[in-house]
Structure formats: C-alpha cells, structure tokens
Design a protein that fits this description.
Layout: E1 8-10, E2 36-44, E3 51-59, E4 61-67, E5 73-76, E6 81-84, E7 89-101, E8 106-117, E9 142-143, E10 158-160, E11 167-170, E12 173-176, E13 179-183, E14 186-190, E15 193-194, E16 204-210, E17 221-226, H1 229-232, E18 239-245, E19 252-258, E20 268-273, E21 282-288, E22 292-297, E23 300-306, E24 317-319
Parallel strand pairs: 10-14
Antiparallel strand pairs: 1-2, 2-3, 3-6, 4-5, 4-7, 7-8, 9-15, 11-12, 13-14, 16-21, 17-18, 17-24, 18-19, 19-20, 21-22, 22-23
Length: 320
C-alpha cells in the first residue's frame, strides 16, 4: 500500500527553575524538563478509506494530544494512533500534536495532512423489516414499562406496556397502538420499544420508514441516546431525534439534537412540513459521522450540525 509521510523535528528548550533563596544549593530538586525532539509522522492510506496512521515521539514526553483539524481531539499516551476521516472528497487538514512531560511542560507542532475519501456503498449492519407476524423480535427490541415516573418519561398520560394490544407486528408493519382505557392507574396505554442493551453503534446512516397518526395528544418519535446515559445522565449523554411528529401540528416533522447547552426548548434542531406525513410512509434519515450530523426526510436535507469533540456524539448510541 502506497503512502506518503510528513516528518517534522522540533528541538525544544530546557527550562531550569531554581529557587532564589540565598544559600539554596539544591537546584536540581526544582528542575522541570520540557519535552524536546518532537517528531510527527502521518501515513495516509491511498485506498480512499480516509484512514491515516499517525506516530509521534518526543524526548521526556509521557502523553500526546492530537487535534485532527476537524474539531476532534484525542489523547494518545503512546503517541501512535490510526484516525479515520469521513468527509468525502479530497480535503487538507492541519493536524496539531502536543507532547507533554511529567512536569506538565509541553511542545507542539502542526502538519498538513491531505486525505481523499471515496464514497462507498453502505454496508447494512442492523435492521428489522418486521416480516414475521407476532410480537417484535426479542433479540432486537426491549421495552420501557410503566409511566416513566422513574425518570425516562415526559409526564405522558399513558402507561407503556409490551402487550399485543399496544404493539404487534402484522403484514410487514410494526404497529404501535395508543388506546384510551383505564390501566394500572392511567387513562391511556401505548408502547415504547428500545434497542438499548441489544445493539449500539458509533456513526452510520439510520433510516426509519414510518407513517404517523393524527390526533391532538399523539407524539410519535424515533430517537437515539448515548450508551452512557446511566452514568452521564441526560442531556450529557446526547440525544439524536431522527424524527418527531406532534398530533396538534399535523405534517410538521422535527429533527433535533439535545446536548448540554442545547436541550429542551433550546435544542439544536429544525422542522420541515410534508403534506402527507399522516397518510403516507416516508423515510426519515440521519447521516452521522465524526464531522457532521445530517437529518433528512426522504432525500430532502433540512438540518445539519457540525460534529466535534465538544459535543457528545462520538460514542455508541442505541435507539429508544
């Protein structure tokens, strides 16, 4: 495999900090040594995958921080890492490497890296076509049961169940059924499925084909949460709303990201109106990469968010 390399050598300076107290002859005890001789190499794959092998070494360094030029920052104790760029086409990034010593002194160097990413046909890694009648596949789906009073709900009026009355696969469709009935102290019932604990992933294309109900009070949605929700909490875990539809506002589709500083009413999202969201099936799509998150209805892009290490969308997510 052919590749090219950039090699840059930086000789750092040694700084000696000595006490100015009269009669102090033990200057070595106050010596702090900065890293030196920082060497950075980048070997770019020519197969169009976007993979780049980075190596960095420096005298007296104990860790290295890579800034990949697209907002992603990674700490690499060994100095060696492989990073995959995902933005298609030929793009040049300025990669900055900072080497740090045990005394917390550092030196940095930047190199240009040109990467060509060739679009490839997507590989299907998980799906459910709902082609077996009966209950949803238990290997793929679990349920939230109850009213959400434990912290996962939005104060809905319904009680969520796993009963066939509320969720059934029939005729190639997953049918989630809201019912007005008295059940477990609630006046309504419905179902809430999730893949948490069954399957999760980082980056990819997610498609949901759906038709929504009418009626004030309905709020169907398909969304994903970061796998670390139990430890980080919400919104620190991040939330990607693939699609939401409010029955009181027919045919307006919402695509939204929630994260610290952009949750609740200040979420980072957009809307699009399609005339037949409640009478026809449409495909609701999220294209998610390390560089950006794009939200579509069918082929219509209506919201884009730049991804970076500053927001929590570079970890495993699962559907909820």
């Amino acid at each position: 495999m052919k590749s090219f390399k950039h090699t840059i050598i930086l000789t750092g300076l040694f700084f000696i900090l000595a006490s100015c107290t009269k009669g102090d002859s033990n200057q070595a005890a106050n010596t702090q040594t900065a890293p030196s001789n920082l060497v950075v190499n980048a070997s770019v794959s020519v197969d169009g995958s976007g993979n780049v092998s980075f190596t960095a070494s420096a005298t007296n360094a104990i860790s290295y921080v890579y800034e990949f030029g697209n907002g992603v920052i990674l700490t690499v104790p060994s100095g060696n890492t492989v990073y995959r760029y995902t933005l298609t086409g030929t793009n040049t990034y300025t990669v900055k490497v900072t080497a740090t010593s045990s005394s917390n002194l550092s030196i940095s160097r930047s190199i240009p890296v040109t990467v060509n990413v060739v679009p490839t046909a997507p590989v299907l890694v998980w799906s459910d076509e709902f082609d077996v009648d009966g209950t949803p596949n238990p290997a793929k789906w679990g349920y939230d049961i109850g009213t959400g009073s434990g912290g996962w709900g939005n104060n809905e009026l319904q009680y969520y169940t796993s009963r066939p009355d509320n969720v059934i696969v029939n005729g190639g469709l997953l049918k989630i059924i809201a019912k007005k009935e008295t059940y477990m102290g609630s006046a309504y019932t419905s179902a809430r499925l999730l893949s948490k604990g069954k399957y999760s992933f980082t980056y990819g294309r997610i498609e949901v084909r759906a038709k929504f109900p009418t009626g004030v009070g309905t709020w169907p949605a398909a969304w994903m949460l970061g796998d670390n929700i139990n430890t980080a909490g919400w919104p620190a875990c991040g939330e990607i709303d693939i699609v939401e539809h409010l029955g009181r506002d027919l045919n307006k589709i919402y695509g939204t990201l929630h994260y610290p500083g952009h949750s609740g009413g200040s979420a980072n999202g957009n809307t699009i109106v399609i005339p037949d969201a409640t009478s026809a099936f449409h495909t609701y799509i999220v294209d998610w990469s390390a560089s950006e998150i794009k939200i579509y209805v069918d082929s219509q892009l209506y919201h884009t968010v730049a991804n970076s290490a500053a927001i929590p969308f570079n970890q495993n997510f699962s559907s909820c």
